[in-house]
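hey can u check if this looks right to u? its 406 residues, i copy pasted from the old doc so theres a chance i mangled smth
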Amino acid sequence: MSNRKLVTRWANSAKKTLVTKLEKEKIRPLKQGEILIKMLYVPMHGSFWLAAHPDGIHPRKDEFMSKDRFCFGNGGVGKVVRNHNNSHDVEIGDFVCVFGHVPCNNYDCYACNVLHRYVECDYKENEILGHGKNSDDGTYAEYCIIPQYSYNVCYRKNENPSKAKLKAFMFAFLIADVRNALTRHPDTLRQRRMLLFGAGYAGQIAAYIHAHSCPEAKTFVIDVNKKRLKIIDHINPNNTASYLLPQETIQSLSQTNQNPREFLDNTIRDISKKCQEFFGGRSANLLFDATSGNGAPLWDNNQILTSSMHCIPFGFGSGNIMINKEIIQLSGLTITMSRGVGNLRNRLETVELIKAGTGEFLNNIIIKNSTCIKGIGEASRFVKKIQISNLGIEEIPHAYIDFTDS
């Protein structure tokens, strides 16, 4: 059986730029514990655009390109068509959501075998589908091989779920990822005043989880995209305020040959002032950076960070975070680095949450405001169009691939 997939390679022998093209290859035999799924729906999110950017701007580019190629995709939903798993947890015809993180094979790895937080592997031998290194190709393909522990059944074959129900589960990995970040510290969701940088997929999900988990939650969101700011407004009406970043700020943040902090004082002061006005004279006490670009220079200062704040740098685009002497003096400031879909409990709870109501949010807000791309061929043309348009990461339209008619 052959498989068509989006593959990113070096554009030429000089290995300076990347190109993403549609390729076709045979599907290898399954190993013990693996399943083969036919992809149904897969979102195209900020991490892909970072990884596949022609200039190779993803901070983990060397990992992605360790074999000079990768097929992205660590999430999505699909139908099982082959099974080499001897257990009874999955059968051919079942529908599974992909969580994409793979544990190591060391019996004494506490992170993988006890905590089930695979991205924190003691041996650093964990893998993520479609992320280079030793991992298998990802879900930006018509078929995908999924290792054991990297998926959960969302519907059995005899349940006959509707397309809408299945579509929601393509975001299971991202729901789990954001939820893991927001629940890692037991007090984070008690913080009512969220300052949210980035209104993309992750930012929208963070706003939703915060609004539905924290009483009297309020959100002050910052982005460059007017449409996405309006989407956040709909998630928590009457308790959301937005701030549109000026174009000159975006240009400063995108410069790679200078320190953008030198040009951001006025913007930072303006953000701090309007944020405090929205929160009734108080500062934000939860900061979530969901940007795909370089957002840290806007908040790694003592005008934005405050004592007792919980700060979660979730996005991949920031080059560095400056911890100066003023920030060190902020008593109770908690900075939590969180990656991955969390432990088994978080994944199972994510599945149940989507069935219990989060799926309606995903369909009515996120999917409704995303472009539907029919099939892998159209996806390849879409990627090419975006890459030659020179749009900023934050300006790329949200989209998902629909494989159901291919």
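The radius of gyration is 21 Å.
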